Each structure stands twice: as structure tokens, then as C-alpha cells.
Amino acid sequence: RFSKSTGRYKTYTIMKINNSAYIIGETAFHHEGDLDFLDRLVDSFVEHKLNAIKFHLLLNLDDYFIKEHKAYEFLQKWIIKKEDWLKVVKKVHASGIELVLLCNDPESVDFCIEHNQYISAIELHATGLNDFFLLNKSLKFEGTIILGVGGSSIEEIDYAVNFLKKNGKDDILLMYGFQNYPTNYKDVNFSRMLKIKDLFQLPMGYADHTDPENENNELIRALPILYGVNVLEKHFTIEYPSKRIDHQAAISIDRI
Predict the structure, then answer these.
(1) Collapsing DSSP states into helix, strand and coil, what is residue 28?
(2) In 3D, which of 2, 91, 104 has the Cα closest to residue 58?
(3) β-pairing verdict for 8-9 and 22-28
(4) Which residues of the chain have pLDDT under 70?
(5) What is the pLDDT of residue 248?
(6) Fewer CB in 10 Å around end: N or C, the chain?
(7) Is 138 helix (H, G, I), strand (E, B) or coil?
């Protein structure tokens, strides 16, 4: 659609988001580098008909972490090779479920651009909102850019949104969530989410990290839809209860 205000064609999200609930199954590093587990996770997501699957894509650890970081050794073991990721990406695409890749390093963004036809959206974590290299590379991706805004200042969000818009990228979704595992529901602060939504006038999603065993869990993760925030991101697992990474906020896929 042509925008008279900007003098250029405006792109709209290619993610199939409408006014009904849109659920993104978050996997993060739950696979811990185990391709067989990841394959079973994808099969389960497809079987339960989630709208989208989200993976954390990390290809160059040295461009993301310093070697002295205590998590460096663990992440090194969990990195999946490009060729194996491509098989997973193609499998998800063939299933008809949309794919979101959170890019932790510039090489990951390059991967998404190269295989753009299989990927609906890429996400930049809240820690990367001011990362010029990630933002600049993401401009070449033909699809939705999701910006993680949990724990971010208004200035940080404004920088990323303005950078993308000034360079012709209007297809932006903001993803709000309190980055603590598990999150105390008192810390979620939906009023801040709505302020950000109103301020930037962009589609908004909610990434829920509350404890699956908390009696308010189902209510909390459903509340945003009452405020027009119909995109829900939730960690899922096929091994519940699990001790794998990110298990603290992951619910059983059967409890969707």
C-alpha cells in the first residue's frame, strides 16, 4: 500500500496475525544442542497447531559472548550447525507453521536473509536494540522485525524503531515481557506494556515467563488479549517437568 505521508510503499506484516489469538511456541536453547530432541519438539508443535515456532539462532559465539563468561562453555556445546538449522527451518516451513528466529549475532541475520523464503520474522533481543550491526543487517530481511522490549528504556526502544523506520522498514512488532525465570506475576506490569503500545503505535506481543504451576498462570497469559494484545509467546516443553535450560517458565505442550 502506498503511503502519501512517506512517499513510499508501506510493507505490512507477513505473519498471519489477525484479531484472534496468535501463539508463538518459544524454544530458546531448550534443545541444548540435541538435534533429535529439537526434531521431536518441532513435531509436537506441528501436531498441536501452534501459529508459529521461535528458535534462538546463534552461529558465532565469539561475536556474542566473551570467553570468560561463565555460560560460554555451555553455549558452545549447544550451538547447532548451519546445515542442520537449514533442515529444521525447511521442515517447519513445510508444515505450514510460521517461523520466528531470534538472531543473537550478525551471522545469524545473514543466515535468515539467505533463507528468507522459509522465515516469517526475525527478532532482535532487548539487549540488541542499540546494536547497530544487528539493526543494519536486519534491514535486508524481507519480513517482520520483532523487537524485544522487556526491560528496555523508552530511549532504547525509540532508537531501534526510528532506525528501522528511517531506513524504510515499517513491518515491526514489539514483544513485551519481564525477563525473569519464572516471573512473579506482580512484576509483569501490563500498564507499562500498554504505554509502550500507545506511544509507538505498533503491533504488540506479550512474552509470558510466569511459573506454569502458579494458580494465576493461565489468567495472566490470557489477560493481554483484553487490551488488544493478541500475540502470546510462551515457552513449551515436551518433557514436563523438565530440568533442561529455560524449564522454569515452560509449560507442557498439552496445556496450550
Answers:
(1) strand
(2) 104
(3) unpaired
(4) 1-14, 19, 181, 241, 247-256
(5) 64
(6) N
(7) helix
Torsional class of 228: left (φ above 0), alpha (ψ -120 to 50), beta (otherwise): left
pLDDT in tens, 107-142: 999 999 999 999 999 999 998 999 999 999 999 999
DSSP string, 89-134: HHHHHHHT-EEEEEE-SHHHHHHHHHTGGG-SEEEE-GGGTT-HHH
**DSSP conformational letter for 10:** P
Report whether 30 contacts 239 (CB < 8 A). no
Identify the residue whose cell numbers are 506511544.
199
C-alpha to C-alpha distance for 49 and 37, rounded to whole angstroms: 18
CB 85 within 8 A of CB 118: no
Q: At 117, which amino acid appears? A: Q
Report the alpha-carbon distance of residue 40 to residue 48 in Å, rounded. Answer: 12
Q: How far apart are CA 141 and CA 119, in angstroms?
A: 9
Alpha-carbon torsion (38, 41, 43, 46), positive or negative: negative
pTM, to two decimals: 0.89
